Amino acid sequence: YVLTQPPSVSVAPGQTARITCGGYNIGSKSVHWYQQRPGQAPVLVVNDDTDRPSGIPERFSGSNSGNTATLTISRVEVGDEADYYCQVWDSSSHHVVFGGGTKLTVL
Amino acid sequence: EVQMVESGGGLVQPGGSLRLSCAASGFTFSSYSFNWVRQAPGKGLEWVSYISTGSTTIYYADSVKGRFTISRDIATNSLFLQINSLRAEDTAVYYCAKEGATSSSFDHWGQGTLVTVSS
Predict the structure, then answer these.
(1) Strand pairing category for A102-106 and A95-98
(2) Chain B contact present for A30, CB below 8 A
């Protein structure tokens, strides 16, 4: 199973960033999103398509339908600049799958 | 507070072995499943292995199957990864990651330990 993310997304502060994650019938799977700042471990920002872990700002939200899942970051801040990864569990192969990652640049 | 601390990384020659450890605290270790995830320098995240509660179910990525062995010890609240027959392409930061109680997401990660395979 393959997850496809755009290598990079750029957005101005205060605007909305949308990062996509494409996969065959991904809408039937639970998608999780991670933020990784340089030199740091990944942090879970959205789990199970739309849920936000404790401590994650409401500016982070997710959706999932058809062949595309999306992480939306509203009112983007300079501190949101990071790499973002989507992840699913592929039950057919019994493998965890990560997308290739998207570098978010805040202009 | 949930804490996960990896150790055991280092420089090893091709064909060599290492045993990575992940010491967990701040939660009931026996109640959760765990994973190892690695990240080669400048690259993305790559899942390595999964172990369920009670060690009853174990999975490996195709790239490491037959060379890596995951295990856990509830007496010491520790997760392990035995890595054998190391190759240059195994060079990476290795993270241990805890799964959520009701989700397959990884809700807590360690800080990572670097494994460098080079002669």
Answers:
(1) unpaired
(2) yes
Residues in chain B: 119
Contact B105 A95 (CB under 8 A): no
DSSP secondary structure of B63-74 = TTTTTEEEEEET
**What H or E segment, with its residue span, contains residue B18?**
strand B18-25
Q: Which residues of A58-90 are buried (b: 16+ CB within 10 A; e: fewer)?
A: ebbbbebeeeebbbebeebeeebbbbbbbbbbe
pLDDT band at B101 (very low <50, low <70, confident <90, very high): confident
Q: CA–CA separation, B119 vs B35, rounded Å?
A: 29
Average pLDDT over residues A37-44: 97
Asked if A75 is an interface residue toward chain B (Cβ–Cβ < 8 A), one would say no
B106, A87: Cβ pair inside 8 Å?
yes
Tell me the pLDDT band of B103, cut-offs 50, 70 and 90.
confident
